[in-house]
């Protein structure tokens, strides 16, 4: 895999991971071009497209598009499931993940991705093992004395506009505060 | 449960992020960011030492700002400091910052590498993984230099934790991809292969990516992985869906690992060991069988994972291309997918079937799905799927179904998406030509093509139809009749007018017997389109008119009338005006004999690969002609004068026109001197702004054998001659380099002189014929060359020949120099050229098997035996052209040697009197980057180096 991009329906980039060396300028150009191309596609269309010399595999989860660029000999379907497994990992870790979790805890999204994919290849495909690694890391972190007790969770900023990537929001979901989003 | 409740929340960061999100405008956002940046800067610069937490928080904020798309130019030092924190989260954020904002600041790299080194040797697996992730994410050369030796050791050490092994494997893969020269094979290699046997599925999953990449580059060294991979695959495929616990994904056992195993096997030919092969075939059959079983889950993840394995298995079956039974089963399976309700599956099935169509075993099976594919072309709602259907139709086309497929493609064209029309047109044109049994069908098809999608019919397509009609006299009458009928349509495409003008100009006489298409009717029909056409087309029509005067003397007065009218003879376009004036004059002054000779029918074009095919291969690439022709075209006319060179550079498609028409040479040995350049010094050859100028063959039809002197002098009298340019001097390197991969052609040309070369080589001997053509009408005196004595007088328009014998004594780098001196009109001309004799001319091709090749390749592993160059493509990257060039080099082009089919490998032995020098070559095109990597290995270092230099200019 050459890179992975997460972007919103409005075209805002939420996460970018590059597995090939490119300049910032090229990255921005590629991102702009791809976001445009993918957003222009209709829902029922096929999840794969040829783009330059690469194959693009993308899937939409709620408000977020997950988009991977793979090389010619790579397998499209298994890449689609890489995306899904990553979403599952995020979902399990954050508990019904939504776009805002990824915005407010972008560093966590990166850490989880690094445990799952490294150098563009699947490193560990077992959900249990990936989460175990992340949890172990979490255990290592000390409670900060400064503001731990009042630290808001990412979910604290949930709004009614934001939807879960996998599940529909349920009644007992932990939406605490709503705030206007400006995306 | 949300992880964030675990207590590492950075409130300041969260507040900052929500502030940004609450900004109502871009300006507000930038203002908020600048405020934050100022704040962070002052904190970093402040006297008070920051504690780890604050540092982490600010670094994280900087990262967030960077990810929003803003530039960050500070904070790197603070991030590096975090790396050596003993608090995990601080270290983690530090690494994340470094991974995302790589900075090649050498001072920092040293510090970063130090921190990484500490973590790698900490024996704390979590820290080690962090460090490895960082290396894998950055993957810079500096890091490869520092750690490429260390990581293999970590990877194969007995006491390394599984999770660290996984990271180490992929980290090494990344380093190998960026700096293959720094990752040295060694004792660890064999142990890496055995990771395929590892208990831990995660370790296997990670290691196999590394092994696959390494095997592609060093197949022999990793050969043992085949049997290990087969047994691993076999265990997975035969396991029950719950055996693999967490590695089972929606009831599919280890889909990622299975795909990677199947992918690894595609780096190798079918296993030679019968037992291994049997086991593998069994696996493939099981995978195909499972596709027929009812799904264990309705979830799309289940079917995707299952089918991912299936498609990878089919790819392997196609790669082997040796098991007819499996190929046909694969084809049937894909056939089912063609009608699947999932668009993704239909897309992939069409794509995969394309490759199946090219296998002799499954071609027929693919053909049975023709109706479904045609239906897909008509009904699919996603253009990318339709594109695949069109590709497949093209791939499955053969003589038996060509008419049906071409008809379907033509009818699809009427409504096809604009984005794929041009490609469709090319495909139709190629299929029509390739499978034409009767050429009237071919002519009909192309004319239909122009009618339906005229705008998308590129010049290659209509040039080609003309080439074919000219070369086949059985279709000329039909072509004339059909094109005449097509022109009757009130609105016909300009390309139709071009084809019509050309064909009627050449073969209008074949239908002139019918009063409905009498000469005058033909002329009036053509002329009725004249005013609606662009300048190039009008120019072509004018040439058709002069041809008419020759074909039908009865039209002479009418046509002269047309030429004489102000809109022609005083046309504001200089090209049209010139043609009108010259043709009018020619038709009134020249005798019928001269007219008949000058305007005689075009000689047949030399058979060559269709330029359309070359174009299709590049699809939408720039430059519409193949590299070879491009080069030809540039040289042929290029040196007549500078103006024309510019012309051709700015409009690449024109080059095709000139190369198309100037190629036929009157006799095999004679050089095709471009006689036009002194017949029409001031007009056609020099000021031709349009490709069509030459299409009517005024250049090449000029009769070399038929009394050139008298015709020449007559015309020179009619048209005043342009003054010759000053002498040319200097060594012509360009011409020289063009001969590396070919033996015959024009070495040099200016306004006075043309030097052609024909050469042949056998073993270490060669013979070269040099032809010096005087392009002027004045004799050259004191003509001499440094090679051997030659007649000092070269008459105007004449040609002298020199033969030299060449013997290669030992390997060499510098080409012999050729000096030419002569006097033209009193001025001394001095010319210095490199003779195109290069070391590769003495190649004897060597065929060898993949095994032999790699064995020899390895034998030549000393650094000085290898020369490598990475360079940008100078010409469009067309496989056929590349092949032709490599063959022209003199080596054998070896198929099925390189595991990557895009790459080329060649082998040959250079014969010198002193010794024989074996050479191996590998050329790796990277179409995406438009770059090549060329590697040469030779038993003699100077040879590898020289060949590398020569060849890197060729592609």
TrEMBL record, chain A:
Membrane topology of the entry: Peripheral membrane protein
GO molecular function annotations of the record: clathrin adaptor activity
GO biological process, one term: intracellular protein transport
SUPFAM superfamilies: SNARE-like (SSF64356)
Keyword annotations from UniProtKB, A to Z: Coated pit, Cytoplasmic vesicle, Golgi apparatus, Membrane, Protein transport, Transport
Protein transport is among the record's keywords: yes
InterPro entries: AP1_sigma, AP_complex_ssu, AP_mu_sigma_su, Clathrin_sm-chain_CS, Longin-like_dom_sf
Primary site of residence: membrane
CC annotations in GO: AP-1 adaptor complex; clathrin-coated pit
Any coiled-coil regions, as ranges: none
Domain AP complex mu/sigma subunit: residue ranges: 1-140
Record Gene3D superfamilies: 3.30.450.60
Family in the record: Belongs to the adaptor complexes small subunit family.
Function comment: Subunit of clathrin-associated adaptor protein complex 1 that plays a role in protein sorting in the late-Golgi/trans-Golgi network (TGN) and/or endosomes. The AP complexes mediate both the recruitment of clathrin to membranes and the recognition of sorting signals within the cytosolic tails of transmembrane cargo molecules.
Subunit structure: Adaptor protein complex 1 (AP-1) is a heterotetramer composed of two large adaptins (gamma-type subunit AP1G1 and beta-type subunit AP1B1), a medium adaptin (mu-type subunit AP1M1 or AP1M2) and a small adaptin (sigma-type subunit AP1S1 or AP1S2 or AP1S3). Binds to MUC1.
PANTHER family to which the protein is assigned, alphabetical: ADAPTOR COMPLEXES SMALL SUBUNIT FAMILY
Protein name listed in UniProt: AP complex subunit sigma
Native source species: Electrophorus electricus (Electric eel)
Lineage: Eukaryota, Metazoa, Chordata, Craniata, Vertebrata
GN (gene name): AP1S2
TrEMBL record, chain B:
GO cellular component, one term: AP-2 adaptor complex
Record-level Gene Ontology MF annotations: clathrin adaptor activity
InterPro entries, sorted: Adaptor_Complx_Large_Subunit, AP2_complex_asu, ARM-like, ARM-type_fold, Clathrin/coatomer_adapt-like_N, Clathrin_a-adaptin_app_sub_C, Clathrin_a/b/g-adaptin_app_Ig, Clathrin_app_Ig-like_sf
Binding site for a 1,2-diacyl-sn-glycero-3-phospho-(1D-myo-inositol-3,4,5-trisphosphate): 11-12, 43, 53, 57-61
Gene3D superfamilies assigned to the protein according to its UniProt record, in alphabetical order: 2.60.40.1230, Leucine-rich Repeat Variant, TATA-Binding Protein
Chief localisation class: membrane
Domain Clathrin adaptor alpha/beta/gamma-adaptin appendage Ig-like subdomain: 737-836
Job description of the protein: Component of the adaptor protein complex 2 (AP-2). Adaptor protein complexes function in protein transport via transport vesicles in different membrane traffic pathways. Adaptor protein complexes are vesicle coat components and appear to be involved in cargo selection and vesicle formation. AP-2 is involved in clathrin-dependent endocytosis in which cargo proteins are incorporated into vesicles surrounded by clathrin (clathrin-coated vesicles, CCVs) which are destined for fusion with the early endosome.
Protein name: AP-2 complex subunit alpha
Organism: Electrophorus electricus (Electric eel)
């Amino acid at each position: 895999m050459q890179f992975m991009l997460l972007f919103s329906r409005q075209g805002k980039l939420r996460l970018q991971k590059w597995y090939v060396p490119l300049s910032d300028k090229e990255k921005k150009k590629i991102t702009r071009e791809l976001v445009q191309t993918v957003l222009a596609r209709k829902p029922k269309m096929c999840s794969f497209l040829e783009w330059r010399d690469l194959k693009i595999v993308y899937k939409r989860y709620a408000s977020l598009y997950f988009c991977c660029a793979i090389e010619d000999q790579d397998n499209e379907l298994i890449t689609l499931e890489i995306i899904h497994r990553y979403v599952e990992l995020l979902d399990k870790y954050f508990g019904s993940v939504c776009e805002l979790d990824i915005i407010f805890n972008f560093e966590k999204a990166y850490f989880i991705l690094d445990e799952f994919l490294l150098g563009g290849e699947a490193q560990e495909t077992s959900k249990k093992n990936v989460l175990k690694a992340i949890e172990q890391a979490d255990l290592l972190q000390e409670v900060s004395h400064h503001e731990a007790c009042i630290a808001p969770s990412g979910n604290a900023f949930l709004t009614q506009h934001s939807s879960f990537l996998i599940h529909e929001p349920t009644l007992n979901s932990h939406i605490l505060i709503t705030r206007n989003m400006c995306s | 449960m949300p992880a964030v409740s675990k207590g590492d929340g950075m409130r300041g960061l969260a507040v900052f992020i929500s502030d940004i999100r609450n900004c109502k405008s871009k300006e507000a956002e930038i203002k908020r960011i600048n405020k934050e940046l100022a704040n962070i800067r002052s904190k970093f610069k402040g006297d008070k030492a920051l504690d780890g937490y604050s540092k982490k928080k600010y670094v994280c904020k900087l990262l967030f700002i960077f990810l929003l798309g803003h530039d960050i130019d500070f904070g790197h030092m603070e991030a590096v400091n975090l790396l050596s924190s003993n608090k995990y989260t601080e270290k983690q954020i530090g690494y994340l910052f470094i991974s995302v904002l790589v900075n090649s600041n050498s001072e920092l790299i040293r510090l970063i590498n130090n921190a990484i080194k500490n973590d790698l040797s900490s024996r704390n697996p979590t820290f080690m993984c962090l460090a490895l992730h960082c290396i894998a994410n950055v993957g810079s050369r500096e890091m490869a230099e520092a750690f490429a030796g260390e990581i293999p050791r970590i990877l194969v050490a007995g006491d390394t934790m599984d999770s660290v092994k996984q990271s180490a494997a992929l980290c090494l893969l990344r380093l190998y991809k960026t700096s293959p020269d720094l990752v040295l094979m060694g004792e660890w290699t064999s142990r890496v292969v055995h990771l395929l046997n590892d208990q831990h599925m995660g370790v296997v999953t990670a290691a196999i990516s590394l092994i696959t990449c390494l095997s592609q580059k060093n197949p022999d060294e990793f050969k043992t992985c085949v049997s290990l991979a087969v047994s691993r695959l076999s265990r997975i495929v035969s396991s029950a869906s719950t055996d693999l616990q967490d590695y089972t994904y929606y009831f599919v056992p280890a889909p990622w690992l299975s795909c990677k195993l199947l992918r690894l096997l595609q780096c190798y030919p079918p296993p030679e060991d019968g037992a291994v092969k049997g086991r593998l075939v069994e696996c493939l059959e099981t995978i195909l069988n499972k596709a027929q079983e009812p799904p264990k889950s309705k979830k799309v993840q289940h079917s995707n994972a299952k089918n991912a394995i299936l498609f990878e298995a089919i790819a392997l079956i196609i790669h082997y291309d040796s098991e007819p039974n499996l190929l046909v089963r694969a084809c049937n399976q894909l056939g089912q997918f063609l009608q699947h309700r999932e668009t993704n599956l239909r897309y992939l099935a069409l794509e995969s079937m394309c490759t199946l169509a090219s296998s002799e075993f499954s071609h027929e099976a693919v053909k049975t799905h023709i109706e479904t594919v045609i239906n897909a072309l008509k009904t699919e709602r996603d253009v990318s799927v339709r594109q695949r259907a069109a590709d497949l139709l093209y791939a499955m086309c053969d003589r038996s179904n060509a008419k049906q497929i071409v008809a379907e493609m033509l009818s699809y064209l009427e409504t096809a998406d604009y984005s794929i029309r041009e490609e469709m047109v090319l495909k139709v044109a190629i299929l029509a030509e390739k499978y034409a049994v009767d050429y009237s069908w071919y002519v009909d098809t192309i004319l239909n093509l122009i009618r339906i999608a005229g705008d998308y019919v590129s010049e290659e397509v209509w040039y080609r139809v003309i080439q074919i009609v000219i070369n086949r006299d059985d279709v000329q009458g039909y072509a004339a009749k059909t094109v005449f009928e097509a022109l009757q349509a009130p609105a016909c495409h300009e390309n139709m007018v071009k084809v019509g003008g050309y064909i009627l100009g050449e073969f209008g006489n074949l239908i002139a017997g019918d009063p409905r298409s009498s000469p005058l009717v033909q002329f009036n029909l053509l002329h009725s389109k004249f005013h609606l056409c662009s300048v190039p087309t009008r120019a072509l029509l004018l040439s058709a008119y002069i041809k008419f005067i020759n074909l039908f003397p009865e039209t002479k007065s009418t046509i002269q009338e047309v030429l004489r009218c102000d809109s022609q003879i005083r046309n504001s376009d200089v090209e049209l005006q010139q043609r009108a004036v010259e043709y009018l004059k020619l038709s009134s002054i020249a005798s019928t004999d001269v007219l008949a000779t000058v305007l005689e029918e075009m000689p047949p074009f030399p058979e060559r690969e269709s330029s359309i095919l070359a174009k299709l291969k590049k699809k939408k690439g720039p430059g519409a002609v193949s590299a070879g022709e491009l080069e030809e075209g540039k040289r042929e006319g290029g040196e007549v004068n500078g103006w024309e060179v510019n012309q051709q550079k700015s409009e690449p498609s024109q080059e095709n026109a000139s190369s198309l028409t100037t190629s036929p040479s009157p006799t095999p040995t004679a050089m095709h001197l471009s006689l036009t350049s002194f017949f029409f010094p001031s007009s056609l050859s020099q000021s031709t702004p349009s490709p069509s100028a030459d299409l009517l063959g005024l250049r090449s039809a000029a009769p070399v054998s038929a009394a050139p002197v008298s015709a020449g002098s007559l015309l020179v009298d009619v048209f005043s001659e342009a003054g010759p340019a000053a002498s040319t001097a200097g060594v012509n390197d360009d011409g020289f380099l063009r001969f590396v991969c070919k033996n015959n052609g024009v070495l040099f040309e200016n306004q006075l002189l043309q030097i052609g070369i024909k050469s042949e080589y056998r073993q270490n001997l060669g013979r070269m014929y040099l032809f010096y053509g005087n392009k002027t009408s004045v004799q050259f005196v004191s003509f001499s060359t440094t090679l051997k004595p030659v007649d000092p007088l070269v008459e105007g328009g004449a040609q002298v020949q020199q033969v030299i014998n060449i013997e290669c004594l030992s390997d060499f780098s510098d080409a012999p120099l050729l000096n030419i001196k002569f006097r033209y009109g009193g001025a001394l001309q001095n010319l210095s050229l490199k003779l195109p004799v290069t070391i590769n001319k003495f190649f004897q091709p060597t065929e060898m098997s993949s095994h032999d090749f790699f064995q020899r390749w390895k034998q030549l592993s000393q650094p000085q035996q290898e020369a490598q160059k990475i360079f940008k493509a100078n010409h469009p990257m067309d496989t056929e052209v590349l092949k032709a060039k490599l063959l022209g080099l003199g080596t054998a082009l070896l198929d099925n040697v390189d595991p990557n089919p895009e790459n080329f490998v060649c082998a040959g032995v250079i014969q010198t009197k002193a010794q024989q020098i074996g050479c191996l070559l590998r050329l790796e095109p990277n179409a995406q980057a438009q770059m090549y990597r060329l590697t040469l290995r030779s038993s003699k270092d100077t040879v590898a180096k020289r060949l590398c230099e020569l060849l890197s200019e060729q592609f």
